[in-house]
Each structure stands twice: as structure tokens, then as C-alpha cells.
Amino acid sequence: MSDWYRDFANSGFGATITKQLGLPRPVELRRYEPGQPLLPGPAVVGSAGQGRLRQQLTALLIDAGVTVSSPEADGERLAAVLLDATGLTGPADLAAAHALLAPAVKRLAPSGRVLVLADPPADADSPAQAAARQALEGLVRSLAKELRAGATANLVLVPAGAEDGLAGPVRFFLSGRAAYVDGQVLTLTPATVPAGQDEDRPLAGRTAVVTGAARGIGAAIARVLSRDGAHVVLVDVPAAGESLAAVANEVGGTAVAMDITAPDAGPRLARQLVARHGGADVVVHNAGITRDKLLVNMDADRWNAVLAVNLQAQLDLTQALLDTAGALKAGARVVSVSSQSGIAGNRGQTNYAASKAGIIGMVRAWAPAFAERGATVNAVAPGFIVTEMTAGMPLGTREIGARLNSLQQGGLPVDVAETIAWLAQPASAGVNGQVVRVCGQSLVGA
Fold first, then answer.
1. Torsion of CA 336, 337, 343, 344, to 10 degrees
2. Do 368 and 248 form a contact (C-beta atoms < 8 A)?
3. Which of 74, 248, 361, 397 is the most exposed place for a label (fewest CB within 10 A)?
4. What are the tens digits of pLDDT across the range 80-113?
5. How far apart are CA 321 and CA 284, in angstroms?
6. What are the boundaries of each domain within the chain?
């Protein structure tokens, strides 16, 4: 999708005007294409304290074909900077983080990546160690707001025993899949991670279900999952049957016209998945509606409709899949679409924000039970994503919404889809009960 302001700001005349007026100058982000290298240039790997991950990170990069440059090298533009901060013992060790990052970030190329890895503060041995670990969150979130030219910074917390799950998240955050994921904190959990994943088709041989798949973000999710090798079962309401069939034909998937709020929807879908596909490997709860109104003016029908589609249907469908033998295969991945509104709130959207916040609570509560089955359940929380709906907004409202993030532009449906597809991969076994914001580090909310 074209971004007229971004194109203008990067033209000769536009660049001059935006610089003089101090206006944002967004750039075209590096997005994923099958077959492209993990990084378009060299990376630096350093540590603060006696970190335990530096050797593993270096080997991972070399195995992916990335040239690992010395932190002391001068002049060479860097595609990524990785900091192993698992050795922090107290605030004094943070000086080593500054010593590595300050000069390396100056060499960061457009759409570069900064990735910091550390232990969770809750696992610290002392208040001083907990303080140092927590300080990294402030460092990374602030650095993400300082970076320009499409570069991002993120933090991955790796508790002892979770090292085997590191490769999937590292590859995601460094790749073009994470183009619109910025300033985020992800916590891994110990898990058994299958070996030998095909990075170009990580979902080959798997069946994925996507609700709300007839258009917009849902259709983008179906396309990306199909591209990654999955057979996609696309679910949407009967009224969207024509567009649903069109997307299903495009991706070679199966269309299922169904009202997911119907009392029998969950058991019926579960039985169909078992009978026709031998169960599901991936379930994406994307279906959602809005019925915006100020709370004092909102009638019960608006409130109930949004909660029924956006939250209760996810609970009921997931429970039915859990209760039906064979409906969820071993190592299944369930991904729910929440929203930035569920984290930060939004005027006129008490019903929508309540439903999307409820999804976060659902995912966190279900994570231990899913882990016992060798499965995962996570959520993505999109920010301002450019869709047909946002195209209908007044120009001023749309442009303000699109620029109020560290990347100074709206995201695309494919950005949400790429994050979901990553969470659906076998290599994401160590990511469970997490909420990943796909918002370009929105300046609204945490």
C-alpha cells in the first residue's frame, strides 16, 4: 500500500520541506520476502558482564549466513547489534551496555536491528541485580524511540533453561518479519523445540484455521500462513461467503462459512477439523467487530455484540477444540488478535477495549495448561494498521494516527500476519502466554 506522505517526505523537495519544518520523515521498512538473507549486512555481538548467550548468538548468526563483525571495527555499516546482558550483577555493569551500544548504534544501517538479551528481573538474586535487569527495559524502549530510518530495538528475556528456544525469537526480531515490531519485551519459557525447521516453509504439512479471514488482516494472515506452507481453513460469516471463497481459492485453502457466535459453532468446527483435516496445528482467532460509542450513549446490543464476537467466541471455540479429541494436534499453536486499544484504551471504545483486554487475560491464564500439552497460546496487539477501515477516516485523524509511533508510519496487514506466522512456527515453542504489540512502538500506551 502506498504511503503518500512517506513518498513525499523522501522526495527531493519533500525532504527539504520536512527538514525545515521538523516533520517526521518515515522510510520504507525492510519487510520479509522468502529466500532473502536473515540480515542484509554484518552484525556485532557483544556482552555486558559474563553473559552466557554470546557464543550461542554468534553461532546462530554464522549458521544463518551472517557475517559477525568485531565491536571494535570502524566504519562498516551494521545490519544488527546484539547485546548479551545475561551477566549483569548490578547497575555498575550497565556501563558495559552503554560502551557497546553507543558506538555500534552510530553505525546502524537503515532498517537495522538492535536486540538485547537478558535474564528476567524476577529471577534475580538481589535487589541490585533486579534493578540492573529492569533497567534494560527502560534502555531498550528509549533507544527504540531514538532510532531512525526504520531501525528497531527489542528485548528478549531468557530465563535459565530456556536457551533452546532462543533461535526462533532471534531470527524473528532480526528479520524483515518484525518490520513493525519495535520497543517490545518478550519473555521465553523452557520448552522442547523441534529441530530442522525449514525457514522458507516452516508450516509445511500443517493445517491452520483463521477466523475472520474474508478480508483485511484476516485475509493477509491466510496468505502468509499459506506462503509458509500451511493448508489454511478460512472461517467467516455466511454473508461474507463470496469474498471468503475468493481468498480460499487464492491460497488453495478451505472455506467454512460459519457464525462463530452460534451455540454449536465450537463443537461443529472441531468435528469438521478432525474429520477433514485430522485436526489443526494452528488456530488464529482474528474475527472481530467494532460498535463504537461513548459508554454513556452505548446500548446493550452494541456492548453485547462486541463482547460476543471478540472475546466469548474465542473462549468457546478454544474450549471446544481442547475438549474434542484430536481437534488440536500435538504442539499446536493458538494465536489471538488483541489490540493496542486493549492495552492503552481508546475513547468511544469501552466495549472493544474491554474485549481486547480480555483476550490478554485469557491468553495468560491458559498458557500453563497449553504448556502441559506441549502447545502454546499467545496474542498479538496491532496498533494503527492501514486497512480499508482506516482509509475511510478523515485525513487529519488518519495521518496523526499513522505517525504517532517510533517508525512514524502506519503498519500493514502483512506486519500483523508475519508476527502471527512466526508465533505459529514450531521454533516458537518457547514463546507462550506472551502479548506482542505490532504497533511500531506506538507512543500511546506501554
1. -170
2. no
3. 74
4. 999 999 999 999 999 999 999 999 999 999 999 9
5. 12
6. 31-187, 207-438
Examine the pLDDT at 389 and tell me if it is beyond 90. Answer: no
Q: What is the DSSP string of 161-204?
A: T-GGG-HHHHHHHHSGGGTT--S-EEE-------S---SSSTTT
* Residue 72 identity (one-letter amino acid): E
- pLDDT of 446 > 90? The answer is no
Q: For residue 378, what are the β-bridge partners?
A: 335
Q: In CATH terms, are 31-187 and 207-438 the same topology?
A: yes
Three-state SS across 74-123? CCCCEEEEEEEEEECCCHHHHHHHHHHHHHHHHCEEEEEEEEEEECCHHH
For residues 33, 37, 42, 43, the Cα torsion angle rounded to the nearest 10 degrees is: 80
Grade residue 392 by pLDDT with cuts at 50, 70 and 90: low
Please state the rounded mean pLDDT for residues 237-256: 97
Q: Which amino acid is at 6?
A: R
Q: What is the pLDDT of residue 79?
A: 97
Which CATH number is associated with domain 207-438? 3.40.50.720
Q: What is the DSSP string of 133-148?
A: HHHHHHHHHHHHHH--
**This prediction's pTM:** 0.94
Q: How many CA atoms lie within 13 A of 32 on its CB side?
A: 27
Which grid coordinates belong to 95?
556501563
- The neighbour count for residue 1, using CB atoms within 10 Å, is 9
Left if phi > 0, otherwise alpha if psi is -120 to 50, otherwise beta: which for 21? alpha
Best CA proximity match to 144, nearest among 388, 392, 407, 390: 407
Amino acid at 1: M
Which of 5, 32, 180, 352 is labelled catalytic? 352
Alpha-carbon distance of 429 to 112, in angstroms, equals 26
The size of the chain, in residues, is 446
How would residue 70 be classed by pLDDT, with cut points 50, 70 and 90? Answer: confident
Q: Which residue has the cell 455484540?
A: 305
SS3 assignment, position 66: coil
Q: Which residue has the cell 471468503?
A: 244
Binning the chain into helix, strand and coil, the percentages to the nearest 5 are: 45, 20, 35
**Distance between CA atoms of residues 370 and 351, nearest Å:** 28
Q: Give the CATH fold of the 31-187 domain.
A: Rossmann fold (3.40.50)
